[in-house]
Amino acid sequence: MKALTRERYGTSDVLSWREIDTPSPRPQEVLVRVHAASVNDWDWGMLQGASLVDRLLFGLLSPRVKILGCDVSGRVAAVGSQVTRFRVGDAVFGDLSGSGFGGFAEYVCAPETSLAHKPLRMTFVQAASLPQAGMLAVQGLIDLGRLRPGQRLLLNGAGGGVGTIALQIARRIGVEVTAVDGPGKLDLLRALGADHVVDFTREDFTSGDDRYDLILDVKTNRSPWAYARALRPGGTYVTVGGSMLRLLQILVLGPVVRRLLKKHLRIVALKPNKDLGYLGELFLAGQLVPVIDGPFRLADANLALRRFGTGDHLGKVVITMA
């Protein structure tokens, strides 16, 4: 089979397509013929190995994970002896970040617990765009943010995968949404239903007069005190990723902010695939339409990763394996 592999950290230039052996599923695994895969922050961070955390988790001097890619969709090609939920031919999707990655390949083995049945009307490209970004959006807005009708929500970094899904979920709940991103994404955010848009190159939402019940942040590029200032009394700030230094500050200063200001600073600890059924229901009800950047062909996977790295992508960057 073909797989997009690397032997060292670096930019997308270190990636190359190679012929390797097709893996065989263990007793509780299925072999998936990959139809599509999407690019996530995990992939970009692991590709570069730019942070100490990435190096400690995935290899200090050279990467242990050779094949990136965690969000996949495809069809079951073989099943292990103890698999009960899937049969050969089933259409599936899921996040493999908890089971070794490997999605940027024609085939990948995954535990059956890492996959769900793909909704019938959902394309493979759409399915590959949802697992990780969708979980972060749901768990940030609902599990930690406890978003309720009538509240004011701000989405920072709203034009990417997490933000475009979160915006549509928020509109369903019935809240006033302010979406923050670069000027090239504002029209999209208006079309998705944002009540207000903010161009971060022209305005810092933390220094204005507006206050929010919930801030869901993809970027995490400001101080905890700045975020707390933009919250209403009793409000909540939730981050799903960003600068490791800022995340550490949120972790350390969160209890201080809670005691002094009665506001909450929280970090999503991703639970992969927990809410795939919920996202499927929203999709089938016409309340969630994945925003796709691409899709890129298999031969253009390096270009897809570079596109993701610029931060200019709209929604999810998806690679098709056909």
Overview of the molecule:
With 322 residues, this protein is of the alpha/beta class. The protein is 30% helix and 26% strand. It contains ten helices and 15 strands. Strands 3, 4, 5, 6, 7, 14 and 15 form a seven-stranded mixed sheet that branches. A six-stranded parallel sheet has the order 10-9-8-11-12-13. Strands 1-2 form a two-stranded antiparallel ribbon. The two termini are 12 Å apart.
Which quaternary structure do these chains form?
single chain
What best-fitting shape do the alpha-carbon axes yield?
globular
Instruction: Tell me about the largest β-sheet.
Output: 7 strands, mixed
**Unreliable stretches, pLDDT < 50, 5 or more residues?**
none
In percent, how helical is the residue content? 25-40%
Which structural class fits the helix and strand makeup? alpha/beta
Q: Helical stretch count?
A: 10
Beta-strand percentage range: 25-35%
Distance between the termini: 12 Å
In sequence order, what are the helices and strands, one letter per element? EEEHHEEEEHHEHEHEEHEHEHEHE
Mean residue pLDDT: 95
Q: Radius of gyration in whole Å, from Cα?
A: 20 Å
- Work out the number of β strands: 15
Summarize the structure.
By secondary structure, the chain is an alpha/beta fold. It is built from ten helices and 15 strands.
Helix and strand topology:
Elements: E1 2-5, E2 16-19, E3 29-38, H1 41-48, H2 52-58, E4 71-79, E5 91-95, E6 107-111, E7 116-117, H3 124-128, H4 131-144, E8 152-156, H5 161-173, E9 176-181, H6 186-191, E10 196-199, E11 212-217, H7 224-229, E12 231-239, H8 244-261, E13 264-267, H9 276-284, E14 292-296, H10 301-310, E15 316-320
Parallel strand pairs: 8-9, 8-11, 9-10, 11-12, 12-13, 14-15
Antiparallel strand pairs: 1-2, 3-4, 3-6, 3-15, 4-5, 5-7
